[in-house]
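Please, structure for the following, as tokens.
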Amino acid sequence: MTTAPHDPADLPALTVRTVPLAGAPDLIARLGPAAPMAWLRRGEGLVGWGEAARLEFPAESAPEGTGRFAGAARALDALRARARVLDEVGAPGTGPVAFGGFTFDPRSGGSVLVVPRVVVGYRGGRAWVTTAARGGEEQPAEAPDAIAEGPPPAPVGPLDWQAGSLSAGEWGAAVGRAVERIRGAELDKVVMARDVIARARAPIDVRTLLGRLARSYPDCYTFSVAGMVGATPELLLRREGDEVESLVLAGTRPRAADPGEDARLGRELQESAKDREEHRYAIDSLRATLAPLCASVEAPERPRLLRLANVQHLASPARARLLPGASTLDAVAALHPTAAVGGSPTGAAMRMIRELEGMDRSRYAGPVGWIDGDGNGEWGIALRCALVEGARARLFAGCGIVAGSEPAAEVAESESKLQVMRAALTD
């Protein structure tokens, strides 16, 4: 059911119960094929199904608006205030939990929060199940029935591929126009994204994609929220108590099968002036946006190399402590869009994206994750992902463009990033 989030009186009164589970559940195996929700890393995290509440947030008129985040924060506060909560575990991710995804551009509709009817969680050796029911409804089945394995995931089958909003050549030409304008001092950096379309013969089973992504990219955050599914390396924000963490990624090279060539590509990335510049913009953006909400922001002087299965990135972990009164979604709103997915300066980059990309990103490159009733949660950036709607999957990839960028190299980099979801869709 879709609930208008604007009037708290219209929100459901939920009864939410969390109880411990024995053992370490295979989280993906618990999911059924209907609209599964997930946030997973190295076998830990949360999965959910069903809808106790669904909150959708409309497009905004302001080009830099944050109303969808503010509306979500108010709606969550109202839901929590009306909920009867029985929590026998008392850990981050227990009690009332919402999975969410926000659009990249405020002028796009489709931002959503979903409180599942059932959530199964596992972290640090502790497992639990949370059930949520509306007032007057029967409580969903609890353990052990709630964690019975679902039916086996279905293969994807044959796929027909087609160009997205722009062909690879058209997108490369748009990158070239962006480079010219950056060299003309219009801005410092812009992130240009593209899409491709895959069509299957039958509805795509998201659980199949989740399983493949989790196995191939265990160090990434594998997610599924309202049809957007992927494995992102980029942690926008993790909150526990008043402590927050973020992982900034900017600057990319592919991996190589030969260890010597792989090491050479890593050294090239670390020594690249273009990639160090791109990374510096991302760090400066994070410091500037978190400063009004945090007592301090700590980040290393030099980035480290983060090696994933298909690519390697320059990476900088950052830590901060939220000031009293600052909410999780305040911080998410302040951080989005980072220079790693938008550009620098932000306003100029957003205008160029709207002018040159030729598509609506929807929730691609927007915040995706979960939040509990105490404000604890994890939010990533929806990268290396696809929007799955029935038998259709729309894949996305983006590249940071600066003065030294070469269009052909950026097209090749985008193809490398698209390969994550191409492989997940391929039987």
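The chain has nine helices and 23 strands. The chain has one domain: 8-425.
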